[in-house]
Design goal:
Largest sheet: 8 strands, parallel, barrel
CATH class of the largest domain: Alpha Beta
CATH superfamily of the largest domain: Aldolase class I
Number of strands: 14
Strand order of the largest sheet: 7-8-9-10-11-12-13-14
Low-confidence stretches: none
Structural class: alpha/beta
Radius of gyration: 22 Å
CATH architecture of the largest domain: Alpha-Beta Barrel
Strand content: 15-25%
Number of helices: 11
Mean pLDDT: 94
Helix content: 25-40%
C-alpha cells in the first residue's frame, strides 16, 4: 500500500508512521518531495491495517496497490526509473542500442565486430561468454576467457558490456567483468538467481521467458527489486505461440504495457524475437515506434560462419543501415511529441 502524508508534514510524524509500519512487518520505502512525502509499504495489507494508519497524525490517505507486484508498480513509484550502465543511461528518452555477436568466439573476431558496431552507432556491446544451449554438444562459450575479451573490448571501445549470467555461483565472476548482467529467458523464473542478483550493485537485464505472461515477467523483476537491487531493465524477446514460421512471436504490446504497469525501462530484442535477419530491421523500427528504451541486436561479420544464432544475425553493413533508420525515426517521433 502507499501512504500519502499531508503537505509539509513534520519529520517526527513521518518517523512515527515509518516505525509503526516496521513494527507491523512492512518494508518501508520513503519518497520525499519538496512538499509531499509518500511511503511505499510492502507487506500483508488488511482492512484493519489500513484503518489504523489512516488515523495516524500526518497521514492524508492510504492508496492500496491492487497489482500483485508492488515495488515494480507505477502505483508504488510514479516517476520512470532510469538505469545507468557504465557511461550509458537507459530510460531517459533516448534509444540505446546493444549490439554484438551471440557468442564471444575469439578475441580477434569479437574486437573486429565491436569496433564496427561502435562506428555504426551502438552504445553497448553484447556477447555471450557462457552459452546455455538446447544441446549439450553445442558450443557452450569461452567462459572466463570470454569475459576477459569482453572487458578488453570495453577498454578499447569505451562501450559498456552486456553478458548473460546463468548460475548463482558465477555472479561474482561475471559482475567483476560486466556492466550489465543479463538474465536469459530460460532463467527468468530461476528465483534463487533473481534473489542473489538483488543483492549486488549492478544493473540487471531481465529477458521475458518464452511462455511467461506479462504479470509473471514483472513478478520476476519484483524478486530482484525486493531483494535490494532497483536497477532492472526489462527485455521483450518474443514468446512461444502456435506460429512456427518465426523463431518466436515478438510481443510489441509488451512495450507500452510495461511502461503503463511499471516504472522500469524496457528494451526489445528483435533478433531472438524473430530468428530471421530479414525481419530484424522492420521489427526494430516497430519497437521504437512502440516506445522502447533500447534494442538488443545480434551482429556478426559473417553470419553463415557464426558459432551460434547465425540466421538471425545482421552483418555490420546492414546494422549500420538499420541504425540510421532508427535514429531518423526517433527524431521524427520526438518532433511530433
Amino acid at each position: 500500500m502507499i501512504i500519502v502524508m499531508e503537505r509539509n508534514v513534520d519529520t517526527e510524524k513521518i518517523r512515527m508512521v515509518s516505525l509503526r509500519l516496521e513494527e507491523k512487518g512492512f518494508q518501508v520505502h520513503l519518497s520525499q518531495g519538496v512538499e509531499r512525502t509518500i511511503m511505499g509499504a510492502v507487506g500483508e495489507r488488511t482492512q484493519a491495517i489500513m484503518e489504523l494508519f489512516e488515523t495516524m497524525a500526518g497521514v492524508e490517505k492510504i492508496v492500496p496497490i491492487v497489482q500483485p507486484f508492488k515495488m515494480a508498480s507505477r502505483e508504488f513509484q510514479s516517476e520512470a526509473t532510469v538505469v545507468q550502465v557504465g557511461n550509458t543511461i537507459v530510460g531517459d528518452g533516448r534509444v540505446q542500442i546493444i549490439a554484438g555477436p551471440c557468442a564471444v568466439e575469439s578475441r580477434e573476431r569479437f574486437m573486429e565486430v565491436a569496433f564496427k558496431v561502435k562506428e555504426a552507432g551502438a552504445t553497448m556491446l553484447r556477447g555471450g561468454a557462457f552459452k546455455p544451449r538446447t544441446s549439450p554438444y553445442s558450443f557452450q562459450g569461452l567462459e572466463e576467457e570470454g569475459l576477459k575479451i569482453l572487458a578488453q573490448a570495453r577498454e578499447l571501445t569505451g562501450l559498456p558490456i552486456v553478458t548473460e549470467i546463468m548460475d548463482t555461483r558465477l555472479i561474482g565472476m561475471v559482475a567483476e567483468y560486466a556492466d550489465l548482467l543479463q538474465v536469459g529467458a530460460r532463467n527468468m523464473q530461476n528465483f534463487f538467481l533473481l534473489r542473489e542478483l538483488g543483492k549486488i550493485n549492478k544493473p540487471v537485464l531481465l529477458k521475458r521467458g518464452v511462455s511467461a505472461t506479462i504479470e509473471e515477467w514483472i513478478m520476476a523483476a519484483e524478486y530482484i527489486i525486493s531483494s535490494g537491487n532497483k536497477q532492472v531493465i526489462m527485455c521483450e524477446r518474443g514468446i512461444r505461440t502456435f506460429e512456427n514460421y518465426t523463431r518466436n512471436t515478438l510481443d510489441l504490446s509488451a512495450v507500452p504495457l510495461i511502461k503503463q504497469l511499471t516504472h522500469l525501462p524496457i528494451i526489445v530484442d528483435p533478433s531472438h524475437g524473430t530468428g530471421k535477419s530479414k525481419l530484424v530491421e522492420p521489427m526494430a523500427l516497430a519497437a521504437v515506434g512502440a516506445g522502447c528504451d533500447g534494442l538488443m541486436v545480434e551482429v556478426h561479420q559473417n553470419p553463415s560462419e557464426a558459432w551460434s544464432d547465425g540466421p538471425q544475425s545482421l552483418t555490420p553493413d546492414n546494422f549500420e543501415k538499420m541504425v540510421k533508420k532508427i535514429m531518423a525515426m526517433k527524431d521524427a517521433l520526438d518532433n511530433l511529441a
